[in-house]
Design goal:
Elements (H helix, E strand, L loop, with lengths): L15 H8 L5 H4 L3 E5 L3 H13 L2 E5 L17 E2 L11 H11 L6 H20 L25 E2 L5 H19 L2 E4 L2 E9 L2 E9 L5 E5 L2 E4 L20 H8 L4 E2 L4 E7 L22 E5 L2 H8 L13 E2 L1 H5 L9 H16 L8 E4 L1 H14 L7 H27 L8 E10 L2 E2 L12 E3 L16 H22 L13 H18 L7 H16 L5 H21 L11 H25 L23 H4 L1 E6 L8 E6 L14
Parallel strand pairs: 1-2, 1-9, 2-5, 9-17
Antiparallel strand pairs: 3-4, 6-7, 7-8, 10-16, 10-18, 11-15, 12-13, 12-14, 14-15, 18-19
Helix pairs in contact: 3-6, 3-13, 4-5, 5-13, 11-12, 15-16, 15-17, 16-17
Length: 667
């Protein structure tokens, strides 16, 4: 345990995955019936993995804290899923998807993993169409595509603004088939509280029934963690309220290295914060940047007047608007990668050009798109001389067909009609590129413990391109893990069932009960949310869109102090042996308080800027990220040694044999 061996196959990049599959060990179908696998998390990665593993013949046990697997946070994904199908004939290819992903991640991801992701992306669409996922289609009946940030092609398949929901329903239906066959035992409203190791191998979990409070033991020959990201570390994020790091952090404490924890994605198109009353933020899909133009007023006095309610954005003409992304990045315009767009918005708002009451918002304007689509629709409908009113009406109908549910959601939250006035947006925490370190087989540094989807670090480097989260989750679950896990399980065909009455399970359950008792024994000065909000403000202010050495060190000290106060003074009402949602939150926030310090420590040790990790000391004269490939071309993999301050850094050096490292440019 604890040795960084990426297990990347030898040979040409394009042949690595095929050759690897040809030579790894397999499990006989008759033997699969005798092997148990636990899958924690039932989103796109976990749901697709569970369904596929059960279809292969393994006995699968799934766990999720929601009341149904179909409520996983994957359901909230809006814009689409990438695949190198080249349906548009615009020059896309497997290599171009691979290149865009590595470049988009600012050259901080593992080449072999990313190329495999691009290869299997083409299979994802066929699989999901066969499951009945209602992807959008163009007039001729072929699947439609749109573009996302950081690319010059259209490779994103979508189902209006509900792509995640439709894909998850496909995986859920596949899961249900296996549940009916008895090959999947679904444990809903259960939370994993610890990972159990027997002879150094992952052999089960300790879980809590969130309805009864009962502590349960579950054994298996391997454990798959597919529990998503840790963005709720920041309190305000686009994640669902229950998203947490507990499963991954429990595995980390048992020996799984945590990789690149400071690599967090800030999404540029979220509904801005409106006050301290909020508990989460709402995403507006990146797909809107296909047609929406982002701008702020050119003059400070106009921005001030808008903030004071004396001026409306529709009263400013084209010459009075600063389309700053189009100005700064003419080649990509409004479709630059998320980290670039987010920092640009922050820069404009910090300079005083923000347009809401807090000064932290920019406009996303659809007026030009509405009129463009309206004129096209008028012409194709035989209206050669349609007036502007008719053109606008026709254009709004086209935009509604493409983005209607997103526009409706915005209007319900903000109480403004985005067809008539520009949307207001601002960056927010949306995804975590960091996660458990895994090798080419998706196995962590603990034998038998695998991590899939957002729970691992493997594919996105320092910044994720839009529509690649769904791609990675489905690739890992449907097409990678079911192959690679067999290589490990082939040694277990004679092992037999794993007993749960062993000393290792006894010790893990005792640790879990002790921790719950400690959470319940606080003096009761403050609520769990009190600590979570305080942590979130530290993280956003000092570890957010920009970071510097002084504030990162302050964050480390403040989080350590906050964590000590939490364990002494948190108030958790009720008891541990029944349904207790405050206890659930307390356990999750306790882990965030450890992860937050490691996050800041990781950011402090990486003396460069790359992707979403922007150190103010390391930037170009134009304010762009300044990488240091000579000293920081590696994955930071942290080994647990007790307190976060004692964590030990291991480095996986990144080797680029097929891509030339150069400064990212979207100009």
């Amino acid at each position: 345990m604890g040795i960084l061996d990426s297990k990347v196959p030898t040979g040409p990049l394009a042949d690595k995955w095929t050759n690897h599959k040809n030579h790894i060990d397999l499990v006989n179908p008759a033997n699969k019936r005798n092997i148990d696998i636990i899958v924690v998390g039932t989103g796109l990665a976990g749901g697709s993995a569970a369904a596929t593993l059960a279809e292969l013949g393994y006995n699968v046990k799934t766990f999720c804290y929601q009341d149904s697997p179909r409520r996983a946070h994957s359901i909230a994904a809006q814009g689409g899923v990438n695949a190198a199908k080249n349906y548009q004939g615009d020059g896309d290819s497997v290599y171009r998807l691979f290149y865009d992903t590595v470049k988009g991640g600012d050259y901080r991801s593992r080449e072999a993993n990313v190329y495999r992701l691009a290869q299997v992306s083409t299979n994802i669409i066929d699989q999901c169409v066969a499951q009945g996922v209602p992807f959008a289609r163009e007039y001729g009946g072929l699947l439609d595509n749109r573009s996302f940030g950081g690319v010059l092609v259209s490779r994103t398949f979508y189902a209006k603004g509900q792509t995640g929901q439709q894909l998850l329903l496909g995986a859920y239906a596949a899961m249900n088939r296996q549940i009916q066959r008895g090959k999947i035992k679904s444990h809903t409203r259960h939370e994993m509280l610890d990972l159990v190791l027997v002879d150094g191998k992952a052999r089960g979990i300790i879980a809590r029934d969130l309805v009864t409070g009962e502590i349960e033991r579950h054994s298996a020959h391997a454990v798959v963690l597919a529990t998503g990201g840790y963005g709720n570390l920041f309190f305000l994020s686009t994640y669902c309220m229950g998203a947490n790091v507990m499963a991954a952090w429990r595995a980390h404490r048992r020996g799984a290295f945590m990789a690149n924890p400071c690599f967090t994605q800030i999404h540029p198109t979220c509904i801005p914060v409106s006050g301290d009353h909020q508990s989460k933020l709402t995403l507006m899909s990146e797909s809107l940047r296909n047609d929406g133009r982002i701008w702020v007023p050119k003059r400070l006095e106009d921005a001030q007047a808008i903030r004071e309610g004396k001026l409306k954005p529709t009263q400013l003409g084209e010459g009075e608007r600063d389309y700053y992304l189009e100005r700064r990045y003419p080649a990509f315009g409004n479709l630059v990668p998320r980290d670039v767009a987010s920092r640009a918005a922050k820069e404009r708002c910090d300079a005083g050009f923000g347009v809401n009451k807090t000064g932290e918002a920019v406009y996303l304007d659809f007026d030009a798109a509405i009129m463009r689509y309206g004129r096209e629709k008028a012409l194709t409908s035989g209206m050669k001389d349609a007036d502007d009113t008719t053109v606008r009406q026709l254009g709004e109908e086209v935009v509604e067909a493409k983005y209607g549910n997103l526009f409706d959601m915005y209007e319900k939250i903000v109480d403004q009609n985005p067809y008539k006035t520009p949307m207001m947006i601002y960056p927010a925490v949306h995804y975590t590129m960091g996660g458990l370190w895994v090798d080419y087989n998706l196995q962590t540094t603990i034998p038998g413990c695998y991590a899939a989807g957002e729970a691992n670090f493997s594919d996105h480097g320092a910044n994720r391109l839009g529509a690649s989260a769904l791609m990675q989750g489905l690739a890992d679950g449907y097409f990678v893990l079911p192959y690679t896990i067999g290589d490990y399980l082939s040694d277990d065909i004679r092992t037999g069932a794993i007993p749960t009455d062993s000393p290792e399970f006894d010790a893990a359950e005792a640790d879990t009960r002790s921790r719950l008792e400690k959470l319940m024994s606080g003096k009761g000065t403050h609520s769990v949310d009190y600590y979570h909000k305080k942590l979130g403000k530290i993280m956003w202010n000092k570890c957010g869109m920009s970071r510097n050495a002084k504030e990162l060190q302050e964050a480390i000290d403040e989080i350590a102090e906050l964590r000590a106060d939490f364990w002494e003074n948190v108030r958790v009402p009720g008891t541990a042996d029944t349904k207790n949602q405050e206890l659930e939150k307390a356990g999750r926030v306790a882990d965030f308080l450890e992860l937050g310090e490691l996050f800041a420590k990781d950011a402090l040790t990486r003396n460069e800027s790359c992707g979403g990790h922007f150190r103010e000391e390391y930037q170009t004269p134009e304010g762009e990220a300044l990488r240091d490939d000579e000293n920081f071309k590696f994955v930071s993999a942290w080994e647990y040694k007790g307190a976060p301050k004692d964590a030990v850094l291991h480095k996986e050096q990144l080797v680029y044999e097929n891509i030339e490292l150069k400064t990212r440019s979207y100009k």
